[in-house]
């Protein structure tokens, strides 16, 4: 594992992590009454858009993907369209899973779908940026000892922490505390966000701690 690559990962993850709290602060200067709790749907849109844009931008700049460097315009357009379709399908799938786990089926449809978009941004979009629309590569990366680079290890940890954070965030909802953050899906989306940020910080630390044991083989 090269030190330069590890430093690039640290810089990218810290930049991603720093961007998340900014989505709660910066819009308040331009939108009257904007708060994470009070205008939660607006914050979900802003957070997903900003995090997604930053992830795509970092992917284009740092190029952690193993995709071929040279390809025709038609291939790039086809790849882009597939990525858009995969992302939309991910949003629909997450929406269905969330409903199966107890979210309202008819009421709060907008809230549930925007939460699904946020989860897809934290997980699926990263897979698309790094691995492209290649389901076999996704399965390989999330299988045991399937990572072939520190970027893929970081992807594993960040995506897992995001989903776990969303899951843990659901625990306070049924409690009779009558707090504003217990309204669906605030606690879940905040849990996913905290999990995403935690994963971004944990991943480089875990990779640094286990750097001597990490040996990557090309597949």
Condensed summary:
This protein is mainly alpha-helical and 219 residues long.
Element layout with pairings:
Elements: H1 3-25, H2 40-62, H3 73-100, H4 109-122, H5 124-131, H6 135-141, H7 150-169, H8 186-209
Descriptive report:
The protein is an all-alpha fold and 219 residues long. It is 67% helix and 0% strand. The chain has 8 helices and no strands. Helix 5 runs antiparallel to helix 7 and helix 7 runs antiparallel to helix 8. The longest helix is centred in the middle third of the chain and has 28 residues.
* Strand/helix succession: HHHHHHHH
Helix coverage percent of residues? Answer: 55-70%
The overall strand count is 0
Low-confidence stretches: none
Q: What sort of overall outline do the alpha carbons produce when their principal axes are compared? A: globular
Radius of gyration (CA) equals: 18 Å
Number of helices: 8
Q: Main β-sheet, in a few words? A: none
The average pLDDT score comes to: 90
Give the DSSP E fraction (strand runs of 2 or more residues): under 5%
Q: Look at the helices and sheets and give the structural class.
A: mainly alpha
What is the straight-line distance between the termini?
17 Å
Provide key terms for this protein:
219 residues; mainly alpha; 0% strand
